Amino acid sequence: VAVLFYSPTHNIPLWLRMLRSELPDVPVYAGSEAPTDAIRLAVAWAPPKGYFDRFPNLQAVYSTGAGVEHILAAEPGPNILVGRVIDPGMAEAMSQFCTYHAIRIHRDFDRIARQQRERVWHVPVQPRAADTRIGILGLGMLGRHLAGALRPFGFSVSGWSRSPKSIDGVRCHWGEDGLREILGSCSQIVCLLPLTEQTRNILNAGLFARMQRGAALIHVGRGGQIVMEDLVAALRSGQIGQAVVDVFPGEPLPASSPYWDEPHLVVTPHVASQPDPLTAAHQIAAEYRRLISGDEMTNLIDRQSGY
Ligand code: NDP
Ligand code: OXD
Hints:
Blueprint: E1 2-6, H1 12-22, E2 28-30, E3 39-44, E4 60-63, H2 69-72, E5 81-84, H3 88-107, H4 109-118, E6 133-137, H5 141-150, E7 156-161, E8 170-174, H6 175-185, E9 188-191, H7 205-210, E10 215-219, H8 228-237, E11 240-245, E12 265-267, H9 277-293
Parallel strand pairs: 1-2, 1-3, 3-4, 4-5, 6-7, 6-9, 7-8, 9-10, 10-11, 11-12
Helix pairs in contact: 1-9, 3-5
The protein binds NADPH dihydro-nicotinamide-adenine-dinucleotide phosphate and oxalic acid.
């Protein structure tokens, strides 16, 4: 009975070390060396399609991170449980990333930096945080944490989810009508949705047209949710004032991409938040013990809804 780790991008020796120290009595293998019959639990990032077919006794696959669309794309058998790491450190890092950009945009700190380069001493009018309404698309583990992180700065906060919600201090919207309301009422929109059939290409020209003119977009969900050509057109027309994009339809973004140079667009290399291998390994070890003792596993996703 053993655990498998697979990733084309992670620091594999580090993850193996962490998993082995949390599961000292359990063999933990990296992809290519695994004895296929023994593997019960796999921990993976972006496995190729059909990758799990070779493990006849596999019962559960955990994403190393919060998103699971890359696991589902590999098409694990229908009876295999799919879960994800729920890391408090990830939520903190995501809130830091989004709050930093929200404040930078709200206070127009780019203009202050420009003034320094131009040796201009000019004191702009200080905007009121309550007048800036920030809309968060996705009120899950990360979106809710971000809502809580923005409130102490005085921002007005709205959120959008699939099912109705009631969160203290947050104007909650849901469904199609809710999307129209949140887009029309916020001067900054943060996308923290999972990638599913419903959210693929959701950030497109139609959605941008429903945002307030000159509003900002902070996209930290998934690359498959944004139509980059539409974003560039919206930035150039002024419909979107500025954008931060952390996740792209094709990653890594090639050096030849024009997006690096697009005015009013901040490009970041999928760094908003990353799982901490130490806490992730601790959590995965607990899940493994539940699996082996027949207890219900936690942090599983609903394969029907895709998140
Ligand atoms: P959760 O699964 O906890 O929450 C997802 C939220 O999105 C829920 O509120 C859900 O609504 C809502 N949602 C899903 N589908 C729809 C829909 N069709 N319409 C409206 N709302 C919808 O996800 P997390 O908060 O943990 O993570 C969100 C995503 O962030 C991840 O899937 C990943 O893609 C991305 N991410 C990006 C990182 C980065 O570094 N850029 C790092 C980590 C994650 P409901 O509550 O009603 O179910
Ligand atoms: C994740 C990510 O989904 O890092 O965890 O994007």
